[in-house]
Amino acid sequence: MATTSIPLVTFNNGQKCPMLGLGTWNVSNFQIRQNIVFSSSFPLQRFHSHFSMRFRTSYNPIFTVEMYIMFQSLEREVYEAVCHAIDLGYRHFDCAYYYQNEGQIGEAIQDKISQGVITREDIFITTKLWITFYSSPDLIRKCLQESLDLLQMDYVNLYLMHWPHAFRSGGDLVPFKADGKFDFDDSVDYVDVWKTMECLVDEGLARSIGVSNFNTKQLETLLGVARIKPVTNQIEVHPYLTQKKMAAFCRDNDLVITAYSPLSNPTNPFRAKVPFVLEDQTVKDIASRYDKTPAQVLIRYQIQLGNITVPKSVTKSRLEENRDIFDFELSQEDMDTLDGLDANGRTCCVPGSEAAKHFPFGEE
Prior knowledge:
The record marks 128 as: Lowers pKa of active site Tyr. By secondary structure, the chain is α/β, with parallel strands linked by helices. It has a single domain (17-25, 79-355), classed as TIM Barrel. It has helices at residues 29-38, 52-55, 65-87, 102-114, 137-151, 190-202, 216-225, 244-252, 281-290, 294-305, 316-323, 332-339, and strands at residues 8-10, 16-18, 22-23, 92-94, 124-129, 156-161, 206-212, 232-236, 256-260, 308-309. Strand 4, helix 4 and strand 5 (124-129) form a beta-alpha-beta unit. Helix 3 (65-87) crosses helix 4 and helix 4 (102-114) packs across helix 5.
């Protein structure tokens, strides 16, 4: 196992963040939703209502013993993954209210603190404001407080706006209209949401704030009015989607990119029909020359770009593999070759979200 320390990046406010973290999307409770919606005949409208007791919704399903056992197993899985990650030296955990697994993450971290393995100050916690909470300052605070309660923490290191667009508040986490389409709230302006995010920093509930899935025009608008500057934009980045325009914008404005789906997310339930970058022969050839795996090359690629990156796994061997990327360096020629694979291959775009007023991917 590699013992090299994970390097830190310094944000524009002086706060430091580990460049390698553990992504927690599509793990535990969220995984069950994926399996139900995309491998059965359940309509999309039940995306979040099938397990109401877990997802704070009004639908009352028949909750079978098999489903309960599945829940218990997967909750244990994310708990153990976080424990393994801490033992392997991970200190950055990328969470979100929407992922519905902050409780297990918080429990694992608190157990490791109780065991004396880590302290709270050793850990960098990112979580995200979900888009059904955008419509008022009270709801924004409520969302963060619920995350803090589940994580068993007094503050988060980084709080992100999950998307620039908003859903209608007051119902399911993913609300639908009678016609089965998403129920967006286009009256909500992300600039107004940001003003409350700034207050959360003032109140000591978040050390840093940022955004996720914003395009350059949206970031430019936000920077023009922000009292507290965002420190990062968390976006999908990998060799099939290099995001060079966004990278240049962030570099010019002293923002760090956080790259999600650095392996192009082969388990994404919304995945567009884009080839798997892990299976690209060019990536495999580069990995072979360094005696590394394709995943290690792709994660190392992000680090050398200067990006924070948050690959996800619940498997101890994969967690160790993803961590073991600090004992080699890709040549500039290989970095250029990986850049050359760009095909605007975005994999994470939920069908139907393009109807939102502030949908970010229409232009970029």
